[in-house]
């Protein structure tokens, strides 16, 4: 490139990248180039970092690394297995009848009066350094009685000069459970847990009465230690007990979630001081936990930074895994203390294209694949298997895929006169539509093949799912040449005739049947999907009217039950079939009880089986009940079962211990980075390209020459 | 002049009240307080009790504009509109629906916005005036025709194209600056280069045409003809006379923009991950955070009114014939 221009540009850039061998487009400081830092992005700002309120995956990315509930999922083993985190072992429930006699685990739900989980935590676990624990020489808390003037001088926790710590105790877990009843804290599971945990609802009522929601000074501290609650109490320093009012085997899964993470009263007291929330200093902004990382920078407008908790005990990497894990190098770090990285830096990327390009440049360690970039990253071979393109392979990028524990379905409102109800006519109509909705095609066109057509409500990997011929939905598929084949349109048309809609026409008017689909999808990107949906219904002669609306109005329609057909999805809380079947349980009807049963499906037999199944452990008897339940809902077809998305994730060659774990939220501690390899690759991939700048400069000069000549000519020409 | 400014400020009050009412009505036509609560509380397992509690805590359980359940002034004052709007007039923006101090957030986020808009404005002025003058100088020649055609083409292309194209060409292909992101201090420079350049190129077509028109108008005036008749070199005619007189509409046009530079750019900040006030507003709309939306709209209105007053004042400074009475 021409020297003068280059010199100018170099001078401009000198202040930021002078004399450095770091690439010019490096978004991070040069000093970090070979540091043990993990780089990732986030697109949505977390709303709540308080573990009692947070219930969103984009928040779990952060608090999952900070807070430690008693249990966790094994990182490598599948199906998902619960293992202790701070607990010494996974607790066994003690069942007791009304007379106080011990019952076995097989006891019927009706016999069980109380269920007790006694949890013992490991001694010696320390909280991260935090000013809430700081004390002076006489043992008094330094920052528990702050004056209003002092609070006015602080904006972040770094403004407190002294930090302290203390040992984790069983009382901290009890304190957190009581916070679910706190009148000024919104816990999304408070309602659910109130039904199970003994005394939680009563405590909530008592607290609500004592402290008005609209108290003038909202910063008043409620010392939950002073309130006894039968269902959650500390036995000794390291042991606590949770008592449930009924049998609920899924409760153990909840013990892996942040709602049951410990909360030190000191932190609650510290943040509740007058003026602190006005300074944006709250538990929602500055978490305090015992986990491997602590949040040292919370700027969701730019970046979130997690740093290694210096007080972390050093949990060992798993020594056992699934078959094949050892061969794929996932046990290389077995037994070594975690975490492996010092810092995790998450940068805000609201748009997918910049995030994707920065991943390709090596500035993010891992990435999903958006539809726009799919063909650049992945191609399918003759066997239909996804594999990386040569461009990705040349960069040493690896691809991991996993069927997610979620489902996207199309539901029928069972309260609707046409598509709903228990009549044979409506059932046949729903089944006919189930056949013609070609989800294989949908997945291929709109999801780049990233999905598995659903045969029922349970996705693969969850207990109760049956693969192969025995697992297909016989009302929609037939088994043909070793695979499921969607039944023909002719069969669907026959069902339509049997339902009283020959050729898709209403018997009274002779006009095509008109059905309405409500969907929150909108915008130009959805038009192709809408056209496709109309085409599917048109196979039966049905005229599909799509009522696209914003999500607010969509939810309103669902609550009122005014939708006819709708599209929705569910992402599992825990790997248990109960967490899918409850979406069809009659008592969870959206219209009647504001529950999660959006189809408002009710079937007495199904409900009875559900009540039996939900309280059982995973064994043959439970599988039998699940098979019966699946058969009932397949027969009734309240949903078109839709599909289970398959997650694709890409990782760079310097990223180690990559294994999809869709249930665990605390996976950052397992990740190992090779910073030197990353630095080398970044330098290789990001060499500045100057020649186009030079060409542009020459073109500008060339364009200026005629103008300069014309100017001089005009200046020299005589005035007329 | 002080009386004039005072009068203008008084005129501004009904405008601001009107803006507030329109913002309020538009927002609550699309979002009900229940929607806002659901958005804040999450999508799963949200009970009606939790929604009611959330609304009560934030005062969204009250009627929107008129409370017929109370008497006297309470009919007007005990409403969501009144409780949310009055404090704005003393610049007390209060807290966002998620509990953050809005004034503090604004004070933090205006700097990244200014880091993009101020260099963009200064470099833009330099480029638009230069190209405008060149085209005016070569009026009715091939240079002028080609320049105008290029300007029309450039102004016909979507701003989004410049953003994505700039990120692809300069960030991804040439590897000269980061594709997106932001940092503080001197490190901010490398993040600011691309958005400023993209903003400059994106607006150069329309602005150059406008400036060319201004200069051409000046060049056809009698004083220019007189200057030429006196034998003054074209260079001096251009820079001493045409440019100086052309600066009057340019300066007044720029002054009105100055206060609004704080607000930033909605699209640019989103694509370049700049944590400014533009992305703050977009996020608030997406999160249905009415407290932030109304604050940003109010702030934008106030700044625009200030810009208009400053424009009037600047007229008196650059044109002695204008007096504010």
What does the model show?
Chain A has 720 residues and is α+β, with helices and mostly antiparallel strands. Helices cover 30% and strands 17% of the residues of chain A. In chain A, strands 12, 15, 16, 17, 20, 21, 22 and 23 form an eight-stranded mixed sheet that branches. In chain A, helix 12 (424-436) packs antiparallel against helix 14 (489-499). In chain B, helix 1 (2-30) runs antiparallel to helix 14 (290-318), helix 9 (188-219) crosses helix 11 and helix 11 runs antiparallel to helix 14 (290-318). Chain B is built from 14 helices and no strands. Chain B has helices at residues 2-30, 33-41, 48-58, 74-77, 80-85, 102-137, 142-156, 159-173, 188-219, 222-229, 234-255, 266-271, 277-286, 290-318. Chain B has a domain at 109-301: MetI-like fold (Orthogonal Bundle), CATH 1.10.3720.10. Chain B is mostly helical and 325 residues long. At the A-B interface, helix 1, helix 5, helix 9, helix 16 and helix 22 of A face helix 2, helix 3, helix 6, helix 8 and helix 9 of B.
């Amino acid at each position: 490139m021409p020297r003068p221009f280059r010199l100018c540009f170099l001078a401009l850039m000198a202040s930021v990248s002078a004399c450095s061998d770091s690439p010019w487009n490096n978004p991070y400081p040069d000093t970090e180039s070979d540091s043990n830092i993990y780089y990732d992005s986030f697109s949505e700002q977390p709303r709540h970092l308080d573990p009692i309120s947070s219930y969103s995956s984009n928040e779990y990315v952060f608090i999952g690394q900070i807070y430690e509930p008693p249990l966790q999922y094994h990182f490598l083993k599948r199906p998902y297995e619960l293992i202790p985190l701070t607990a010494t072992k996974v607790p066994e429930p003690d069942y007791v009848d009304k007379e106080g006699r011990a019952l076995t685990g097989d006891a019927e739900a009706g016999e069980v009066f109380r269920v007790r989980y006694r949890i013992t935590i490991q001694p010696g676990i320390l909280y991260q350094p935090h000013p809430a624990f700081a004390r002076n020489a006489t043992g008094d808390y330094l920052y528990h009685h702050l004056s209003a003037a002092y609070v006015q001088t602080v904006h972040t926790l770094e403004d407190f000069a002294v930090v302290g710590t203390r040992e984790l105790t069983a009382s901290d877990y009890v304190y957190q459970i009581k916070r679910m009843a706190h009148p000024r804290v919104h816990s999304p599971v408070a309602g659910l847990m109130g039904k199970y945990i003994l005394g939680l609802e009563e405590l909530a009522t008592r607290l609500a009465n004592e402290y008005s929601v609209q108290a003038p000074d909202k910063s008043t501290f409620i010392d939950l230690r002073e309130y006894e609650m039968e269902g959650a109490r500390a036995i000794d320093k390291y042991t606590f007990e949770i008592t449930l009012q009924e049998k609920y085997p899924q409760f153990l899964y909840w013990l892996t979630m942040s709602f049951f993470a410990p909360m030190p009263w000191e932190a609650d007291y510290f943040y509740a001081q007058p003026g602190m929330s006005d300074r944006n200093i709250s538990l929602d902004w500055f978490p305090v936990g015992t986990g491997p990382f602590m949040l040292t920078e919370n700027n969701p407008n730019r970046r979130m930074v997690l740093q290694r908790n210096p007080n972390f005990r050093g949990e060992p990497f798993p020594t056992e895994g699934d078959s094949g894990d050892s061969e794929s190098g996932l046990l290389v770090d077995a037994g070594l203390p975690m975490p492996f990285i010092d810092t995790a830096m998450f940068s805000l990327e609201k748009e997918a294209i910049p995030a994707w390009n920065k991943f390709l440049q090596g500035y993010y360690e891992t990435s999903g694949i958006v539809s726009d970039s799919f063909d650049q990253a992945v191609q399918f071979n003759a066997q239909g298997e996804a594999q990386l393109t040569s461009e990705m392979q040349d960069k040493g990028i690896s691809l991991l895929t996993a069927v997610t524990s979620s489902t996207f379905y199309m539901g029928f409102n069972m309260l609707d006169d046409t598509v709903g109800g228990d009549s044979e006519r409506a059932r046949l109509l729903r089944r006919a539509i189930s056949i013609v909705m070609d989800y294989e095609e949908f997945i291929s066109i709109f999801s780049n093949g990233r999905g598995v057509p659903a045969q029922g409500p349970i996705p693969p990997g969850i207990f109760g799912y049956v693969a192969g011929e025995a697992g297909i939905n016989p009302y929609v598929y037939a088994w043909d040449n070793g695979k499921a084949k969607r039944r023909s349109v002719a069969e669907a048309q026959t069902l339509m005739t049997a339902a009283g809609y020959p050729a898709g026409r209403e018997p009274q008017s002779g006009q095509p049947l008109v059905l309405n689909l409500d969907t929150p999808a909108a915008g130009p990107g959805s038009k192709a999907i809408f056209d496709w949906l109309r085409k599917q219904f048109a196979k039966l002669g049905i005229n599909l009217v799509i009522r696209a609306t914003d999500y607010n109005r969509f939810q309103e329609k669902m609550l009122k039950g005014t939708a006819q057909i709708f599209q929705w999805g569910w992402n599992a809380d825990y790997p248990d079939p109960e967490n899918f079947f409850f979406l069809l349980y009659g008592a969870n009807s959206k219209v009647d009880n504001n529950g999660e049963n959006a189809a408002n499906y009710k079937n007495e037999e199904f409900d009875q089986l559900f009540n039996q199944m939900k309280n059982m452990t995973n064994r043959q008897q439970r599988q039998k009940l699940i098979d019966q339940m699946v058969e009932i809902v397949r027969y009734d077809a309240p949903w078109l079962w839709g599909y289970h998305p398959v997650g694709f994730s890409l990782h760079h060659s310097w990223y180690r211990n990559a294994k999809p774990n869709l249930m665990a939220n605390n996976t950052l501690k397992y990740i190992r980075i090779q910073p030197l390899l990353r630095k080398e690759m970044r330098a290789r991939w990001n060499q500045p390209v100057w020649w186009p700048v030079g060409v542009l400069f020459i073109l500008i000069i060339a364009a200026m020459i005629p103008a300069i000549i014309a100017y001089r000519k005009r200046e020299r020409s005589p005035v007329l | 002049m002080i009386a004039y400014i005072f009068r203008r400020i008084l005129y501004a009050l009904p405008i601001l009240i009107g803006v507030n009412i329109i913002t309020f009505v538009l927002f609550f036509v699309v979002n009900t307080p229940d929607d806002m609560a659901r958005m804040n509380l999450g999508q799963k397992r949200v009970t009606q009790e939790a929604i009611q509690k959330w609304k009560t805590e934030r005062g969204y359980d009250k009627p929107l504009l008129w409370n017929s359940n109370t008497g006297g002034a309470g009919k007007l004052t005990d409403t969501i509109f009144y409780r949310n709007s009055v404090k704005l007039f003393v610049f007390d923006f209060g807290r966002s629906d998620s509990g953050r101090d809005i004034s503090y957030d604004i004070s933090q986020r205006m700097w990244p916005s200014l880091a993009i808009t101020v260099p963009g404005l200064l470099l833009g002025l330099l480029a638009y005036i230069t190209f405008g003058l060149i085209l005016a100088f070569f009026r009715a020649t091939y240079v002028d025709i080609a320049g105008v055609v290029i300007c029309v083409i450039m102004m016909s292309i979507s701003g989004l194209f410049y953003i994505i194209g700039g990120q692809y060409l300069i960030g991804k292909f040439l590897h000269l600056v980061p594709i997106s992101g932001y940092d503080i201090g001197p490190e901010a420079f490398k993040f600011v280069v691309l958005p400023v350049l993209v903003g400059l190129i994106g607006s150069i077509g329309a602005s150059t045409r406008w400036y060319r028109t201004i200069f051409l108008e000046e060049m056809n005036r009698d004083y220019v003809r007189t200057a030429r008749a006196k034998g003054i070199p074209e260079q001096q005619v251009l820079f001493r006379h045409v440019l100086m007189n052309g600066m009057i509409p340019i300066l007044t046009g720029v002054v009105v923009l100055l206060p609004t530079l704080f607000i930033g750019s909605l699209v640019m900040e989103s694509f370049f991950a700049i944590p400014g006030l533009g992305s703050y507003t977009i996020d608030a709309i997406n999160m249905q955070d009415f407290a932030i939306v109304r604050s940003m709209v109010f702030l934008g209105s106030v700044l625009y009114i200030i810009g208009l007053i400053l424009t009037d004042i600047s007229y008196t400074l650059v044109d002695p014939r204008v007096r504010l009475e």
